[in-house]
Hints:
Elements: H1 9-20, E1 24-26, E2 35-39, E3 57-59, E4 73-78, E5 82-85, H2 86-91, E6 96-103, E7 126-135, H3 136-140, E8 152-157, E9 168-172, H4 173-179, E10 181-186, E11 189-190, E12 200-202, E13 215-221, H5 238-242, H6 264-270, E14 284-289, E15 296-297, E16 303-311, E17 317-323, E18 331-332, E19 334-336, E20 345-352, E21 356-366, E22 375-376, E23 390-391, E24 408-413
Parallel strand pairs: 4-13, 15-24, 22-23
Antiparallel strand pairs: 1-2, 2-3, 4-5, 6-7, 7-10, 8-9, 8-13, 10-11, 10-12, 14-16, 16-20, 17-18, 17-21, 19-20, 21-24
Molybdenum atom (MO) binds at residues 58, 104-106, 208-209.
Amino acid sequence: xxxxxxxxxxxxxxxxxxxxxxxxxxxxxxxxxxxxxxxxxxxxxxxxxxxxxxxxxxxxxxxxxxxxxxxxxxxxxxxxxxxxxxxxxxxxxxxxxxxxxxxxxxxxxxxxxxxxxxxxxxxxxxxxxxxxxxxxxxxxxxxxxxxxxxxxxxxxxxxxxxxxxxxxxxxxxxxxxxxxxxxxxxxxxxxxxxxxxxxxxxxxxxxxxxxxxxxxxxxxxxxxxxxxxxxxxxxxxxxxxxxxxxxxxxxxxxxxxxxxxxxxxxxxxxxxxxxxxxxxxxxxxxxxxxxxxxxxxxxxxxxxxxxxxxxxxxxxxxxxxxxxxxxxxxxxxxxxxxxxxxxxxxxxxxxxxxxxxxxxxxxxxxxxxxxxxxxxxxxxxxxxxxxxxxxxxxxxxxxxxxxxxxxxxxxxxxx
Length: 415
Ligand SMILES: Nc1nc2c(c(=O)[nH]1)N[C@H]1C(S)=C(S)[C@@H](COP(=O)(O)O)O[C@H]1N2
Ligand SMILES: [Mo]
């Protein structure tokens, strides 16, 4: 299958993206398959809005050619029957904008020990952009009368696979009509090609893999995508049912037609389904400043401000704590700045710093009381890890949100 092969063309794509994106860096991909570019440095996480230049990129196939948005169409299938050009989607429906913190489900994969292969992300596969487009609810309105409330929406990418697999991802229809949009702009600019030009799905608060780029088809069915769900050749189920599932080593997750909840953490805690799907993002935080790249000199007033971002997918961030001693003790940080559903919050902490060597860490808790675990477990622990304040090591390296792997060392000097 194509998903097993390396992809030489990705190197040219990455070079071209890096040339345009001044603030980004290539990420290590052991499998040599993905076009991956990450935010360059920690300072990205001291700002609420991520400039396009600093926003990570992640995809598996060559980018499809789209000259303009005139010819590109999105077909509605399954329970629906319709086709819209991008121009129609833009002009015939209301325009909205949503702030969305997008995190690759593989963010933190590079922190798994032993290593798990594929893209070795640290914390750099996350960013917050303002995406403009058309609400899905406006496009689907009037076409959903005969559709059950618990139906699924499958989005299919127009990217050509070099194997059998089709890039298709399913989300509950209820989520789709709640807050998802068909986006054609990013931070007020025409959608850059690597981010999905001319049109992509944005699923606010959910892992990046759900936000299908170069959108070709939206299909409403009773169930999520399985082997032969689509009216086209190829393997339709790979990206939903096999990849992007959280499971221990050597396990092949079972195919499900439906699951009860889109909350990834609930799936992990409840063991239902046995091997969770990467849907909504779990609670996470990153310190942006100081960045540890250079020593900090104690200022006149003795206070060093620690700034970062925290997010919790569909849930709200309730609180963030900061540690300057590698997690032995914690102090409450202050949340500030914009507070939009699905987007991260800024936090700050005024640290009365004295000269010395420190390890800075941050730990966020969501509004359901779920807190980032301290470290990633060993491979055998699986779900028991949660009881030990650890995140379960998993074969795909997905959804990791541990505290200590994102800590930074800092030297504070006297004035
Ligand atoms: N069609 C298509 N959409 C895709 C992908 C892909 O490979 N093909 N990659 C997904 C993954 S894994 C992520 S993390 C996000 C990244 O979006 P970005 O490159 O705009 O940051 O796009 C998602 N959408
Ligand atoms: Mo991803």
